[in-house]
Structures are given as C-alpha cells and as structure tokens.
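Hi V.,

You were right to ask for the full record rather than a summary. Here it is.
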Amino acid sequence: MSSRRHKKRKLKAEINVVPYIDVMLVLLIIFMVTAPLLNLGVDIDLPQSTAKSIQSKEDPVIVSVDRGGRLFLTLQGDANREVTRDEMVAKVKAFVSQRPNVPVYVAGDANAPYQTVYDVLSTLQTDAGVARAGLMSTPTK
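Predicted structure:
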C-alpha cells in the first residue's frame, strides 16, 4: 500500500479551449445579426438629373447636407460622420492638400435650403482650397 501513496500523478498543463470557442461563436453570431442593422449613412433625397455620371479612379470626398442643414463628411469611402463647418473645412483642406486631384462633391438633400448648399460650396472653395466641387444628384428614371 505504501507504494501507491508515493506515486505522484503528473499534472496536466493544458488549457481547455472549448468554452472560449463557444463564447467566440456566440459573439460572431451577435455581430453578424447586428451588422446589417447599423445605420451607416444619412438619408438624403437627392434631386433628379439627366447628367451622365463622372468616372473617377479615387474615392471622392462627399459633403452631405440634410434637410435640417446638418453637414456629414465622407472621406475615402468611410462612413458619413456628422461634422461642424469648421471641422469640415479642416479635414477637407488637409485631405485635398495631400491629393489635389481628388473629386469633391456636395450631396444636398432636395428639400435642404438652397442657401445652405450654396454656402457649403462657397466654403469649400474659399476656406478649404478646393479648386472644383460638384453637386451630386440621382439619375431620372
């Protein structure tokens, strides 16, 4: 009997990863379900136009103006972010100074005040140093 007591069991130094895999799968499912529900854009009702679309190699800088006159900025295909007029000028000026040929567009809601859209265009040219800025529209059906 004394020989049994003196036998030492070797300890296992392994990590049981099964619970971690379960947690990761649950998180994956949660993110897959919630990702399509995130609102990454601003609903803007663009005016209709018969103009042909412009093809560009670079992602454009888009300044969106909603019905209430709030400004949203999209840089390099990033999600729309609400910005103040001063933030818009600073970010667009820095971006355009690095890439002078990047297209800059203003997407004004069809129901936004014309003066607000005009002020944004004027601010882009005078304060942000944008040589040419265009207006966005949706094609007529």
